[in-house]
Structure to design on (918 residues):
């Protein structure tokens, strides 16, 4: 006799399936944006320039989020991402100045990795609280980068105590035929088709190889973490390290590897800021992107696809505010529609209370949009943060973090 | 088939921790193809010995011989290579991973992590009747299925010697029967099983040989065909087994606690408790039996005001307390022994006397006006330590330093102070040794005679049958049967608990 219950796969409705697939969500999202673009007559919303800016704004956050993913999947909370990113900006500047951009990227990763090593030594070997160690690394990272910049960069050409300009950027790629064709279609401003076209245009025109590398790292991380035995072992350390130990997994080793990779990825994110997002290093240029990356990862439910969506949301809204305030005003309509769509999904799932709350929020934003012509300048600066927070709050309904995330693990504690 | 070479020989094993001798001069011989039972009280050193045999900890002295070869086991990996596998009492499974992922973890080289592994899992599952689906998340599995997964995990790694640490603690009688069928198939196939338990009936039922441990050392062996429970008990504790049985009924007519049609719904609209009604009278012990996770915790938390029922009414005496807060309820005289003393009952790092104040922080002698009454609290803690036989170096000792039994006695003593009218005891003797168990049973019986109403939730069916005046069986949040403990057997209860007929 047994108490196991056999679960029969429940037939899911169309709405259920649509809401579960990132591809469909993406398409619906583009459709919404396209609709808003036409209604509000704000072509900037999906102009290739906007999307290019969005990609550039996304990449550093994405790299940091990936870093968070690696560490937390192995059970180590890494809020030191910010500090590791800052170290990465300095590393990128220093090594690019001497050896060119690709060694610069390696240098950024190396400096981030040093930050990761500090975190690993503190949390894994000495069992320091992960948050305490992470905060310490953020302070150390900022302090170290500032000190090293002041000590070294004033001597360099284009350098000063707080910046180093004129760094060589990694190669940019343009695919000639596709780029022009996409440009032509995008200029027609057709519904949906042109939006897709500007997307393609942005991806094929002067795109930095480093951007492509960061996006590729998402795929690589997903495959390594979920399709290899190395990844299984690493994830098991975040779910139940005692169990992993009893099966002969060297938990400390995997935690170290994960935190080192985490630091290196954050460092690459920092390097991107110094080499691609701007033309040089300046102190404090991370501007809290490490934390945003961490938030994007949490909103993404500790999954690569999810953190990609989170980073893109932030990157896109961030790029809009840089274009003009009109776009941000149109964004209000987009947010309102998004909220209402989400409310409809809630209602469909019979989550009445949630549906009502989201509907009210959606209507409030809609009313704001209809009753104003522009958004105060001060507000545009905080748009990306507010939007990401919104998405986070709405999306963060059934988050499932790794079971042993943030817990200190001691060898021999099994059984 | 027992072969000439013994599966495992442990000789003179010793292990010391700072301040504690966990094992000393331990000798155990496991014959090949047999079930060897290792019995002893909690704290007798069984678990330490197991960890040594499985390479989690290294012995300070002694030798380990596996299938005729002397070995030094430095890690579980080496134990697995030597053919030893272990199923821990607390399952070593990651809930958020699938059966397959849990199975192949650490042994990815054997059959890969894809279809090869899937096939092998199905083969093991079919061969021993484990009924495991490789692609289900472990969190969806019941306790018995998790245990079968743990055993399958060990077999997947090619273990021939399987250690089971208190495998029946979490199972109902029917599941225990099923487990024993599995174990017999395992030994018939030439494997050896080391079965750790302190449930003597089960040991006599399944074991081919028995070794008894007491205070860290092996004190004797017994033959299950001739040994009696009584003899084993004497070997284990050096005295007679305590019995939970109560004397004649002390049930009065006054209803102390009354639940009327209590329903509790969670945020997803699922019923955790549906339409529960019960009455507990003064001097009555009402037992709640059920497989864990069928609403016992929710029921207790609802009565304690930690959850507010979606509908229904709770009466304490003649007051409606449905919407009262936990503190109001405690002040009204409800004592509460929580199911997990580490999470709910105690502050482990705080001294005994501070723990005495917990939950009584509004009542004398813990407070005087707005201030904590250190002197009063300390004096009263001394009283509890004395009256309830809490063995501790002093009342300034942190509670963590106490054994489970003494921690539990401290909780029982605390909850009994301040003249409660109702005691809610959730698994009061879980994880405590036989001596403390007897003492706690004694206190519950004494309270019952004094006219206290008691709600007793337990997984120990003998305890329920022995102490209760009435037993209610809970299944998926509903009461599915009322039993008279004078007439019911553990098998009947087990059948009702799983919603089926007796196996």
């Amino acid at each position: 006799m047994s108490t196991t219950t056999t679960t029969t796969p429940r037939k899911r409705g169309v709405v259920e399936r649509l809401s579960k697939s990132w591809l469909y969500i993406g398409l619906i999202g583009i459709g919404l944006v396209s609709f808003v673009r036409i209604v509000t007559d704000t072509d900037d919303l999906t102009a290739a320039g906007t999307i290019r800016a969005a990609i550039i704004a996304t990449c550093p956050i994405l790299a940091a989020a990936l870093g968070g993913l690696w560490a937390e999947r192995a059970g180590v909370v890494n809020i030191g991402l910010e500090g590791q990113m800052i170290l990465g900006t300095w590393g990128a500047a220093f090594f690019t100045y001497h050896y060119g951009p690709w060694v610069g990227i390696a240098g950024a990763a190396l400096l981030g990795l040093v930050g990761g090593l500090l975190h690993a030594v503190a949390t894994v070997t000495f069992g320091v609280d992960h948050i305490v160690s992470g905060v310490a690394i953020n302070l150390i990272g900022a302090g170290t980068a500032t000190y090293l910049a002041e000590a070294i960069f004033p001597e360099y050409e284009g350098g000063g105590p707080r910046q180093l300009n004129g760094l060589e950027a990694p190669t940019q790629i343009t695919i000639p035929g596709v780029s022009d064709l996409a440009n032509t279609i995008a200029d027609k401003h057709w519904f949906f088709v042109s939006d897709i076209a500007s997307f393609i245009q942005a991806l094929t025109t002067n795109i930095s190889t480093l951007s492509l590398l960061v996006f590729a790292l998402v795929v690589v991380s997903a495959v390594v973490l979920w399709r290899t035995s190395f990844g299984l072992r690493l994830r098991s350390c975040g779910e139940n390290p005692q169990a992993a130990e009893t099966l002969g997994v060297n938990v400390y080793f995997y935690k170290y590897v994960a935190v080192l990779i985490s630091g290196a990825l954050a460092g690459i994110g920092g390097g991107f800021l110094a080499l691609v997002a701007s033309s040089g290093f300046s102190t404090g240029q991370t501007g809290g992107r490490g934390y945003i990356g961490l938030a994007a990862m949490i909103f993404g439910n500790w999954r690569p696809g999810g953190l990609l969506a989170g980073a893109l949301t932030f990157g896109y809204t961030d790029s809009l505010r840089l274009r003009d305030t009109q776009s941000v005003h149109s964004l209000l309509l987009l947010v309102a529609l998004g909220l209402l769509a989400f409310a409809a999904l809630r209602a469909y799932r019979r989550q009445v209370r949630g549906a009502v709350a989201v509907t009210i929020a959606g209507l409030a934003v809609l009313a704001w949009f209809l009753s104003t012509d522009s958004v105060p300048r001060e507000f545009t600066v905080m748009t990306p943060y507010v939007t990401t927070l919104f998405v986070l709050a709405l999306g963060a309904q059934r988050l499932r973090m790794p079971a042993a995330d943030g817990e200190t693990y001691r060898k021999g504690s099994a059984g | 088939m027992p072969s000439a070479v013994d599966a495992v020989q442990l000789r003179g094993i010793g292990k010391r921790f700072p301040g504690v001798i966990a094992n000393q001069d331990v000798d155990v011989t496991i014959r090949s193809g047999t079930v060897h039972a290792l019995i002893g009280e909690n704290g007798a050193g069984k678990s330490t010995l197991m960890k040594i045999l499985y390479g989690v900890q290294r012995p300070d002295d002694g030798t380990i011989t596996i299938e005729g070869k002397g070995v030094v086991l430095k890690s579980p990996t080496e134990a697995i290579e030597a053919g030893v596998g272990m199923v821990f009492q607390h399952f070593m499974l990651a809930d958020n991973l699938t059966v397959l992922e849990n199975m192949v973890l650490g042994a990815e080289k054997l059959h890969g992590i894809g279809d090869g592994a899937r096939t092998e899992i199905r083969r093991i599952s079919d061969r021993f009747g484990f009924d495991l689906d490789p692609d289900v998340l472990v969190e969806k599995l019941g306790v018995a299925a998790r245990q079968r997964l743990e055993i399958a995990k060990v077999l997947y790694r090619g273990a021939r010697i399987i250690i089971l640490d208190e495998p029946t603690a979490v199972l109902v009688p029917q599941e225990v029967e099923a487990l024993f069928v599995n174990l017999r198939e395992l030994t018939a196939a030439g494997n050896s099983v080391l079965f750790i338990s302190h449930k003597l009936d089960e040991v006599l039922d399944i074991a081919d040989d028995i070794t008894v441990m007491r205070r860290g050392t092996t004190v004797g062996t017994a033959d299950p065909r001739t040994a009696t429970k009584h003899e084993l008990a004497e070997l284990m504790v050096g005295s007679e087994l305590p019995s939970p049985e109560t004397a004649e009924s002390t049930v009065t007519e006054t209803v102390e606690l009354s639940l009327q049609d209590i329903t509790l719904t969670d945020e997803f609209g699922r019923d955790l408790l549906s339409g529960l009604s019960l009455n507990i009278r003064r001097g009555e012990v009402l037992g709640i039996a059920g497989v864990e996770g069928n609403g016992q915790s929710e029921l207790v938390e609802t009565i304690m005001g930690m959850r507010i029922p979606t509908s229904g009414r709770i009466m304490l005496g003649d007051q409606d307390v449905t919407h009262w807060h936990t503190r109001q309820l405690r002040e009204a005289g409800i004592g509460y022994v929580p199911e997990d003393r580490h999470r709910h009952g105690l502050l482990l790092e705080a001294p005994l006397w501070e723990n005495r104040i917990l939950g009584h922080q509004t009542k004398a002698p813990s407070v005087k006006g707005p201030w904590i009454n250190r002197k009063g609290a300390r004096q009263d803690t001394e009283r509890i330590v004395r009256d309830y036989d809490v063995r501790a170096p002093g009342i300034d000792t942190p509670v963590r330093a106490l054994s489970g039994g003494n921690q539990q006695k401290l909780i029982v003593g605390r909850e009994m102070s301040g003249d409660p009218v109702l005691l809610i005891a959730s698994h009061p003797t879980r994880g405590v040794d036989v001596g403390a168990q007897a003492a706690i049973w004694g206190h519950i019986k004494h309270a019952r005679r004094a006219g206290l109403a008691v709600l007793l939730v337990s997984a120990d069916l003998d305890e329920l049958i022995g102490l209760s005046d009435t037993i209610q069986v809970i299944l998926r949040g509903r009461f599915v049967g009322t039993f008279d403990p004078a007439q019911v057997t553990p098998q009947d209860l087990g059948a009702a608990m799983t919603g089926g007929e007796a196996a």
Q: What stands out?
A: The interface with chain B takes residues 1-7, 228-229, 232-233, 235-236, 239-240, 242-249, 350, 400, 402-403, 412, 414-415 of chain A (CB under 8 Å). Chain A has two domains: 42-318, 324-396. The first helix of chain A runs from residue 14 to 20. Residues 324-396 of chain A form one domain.
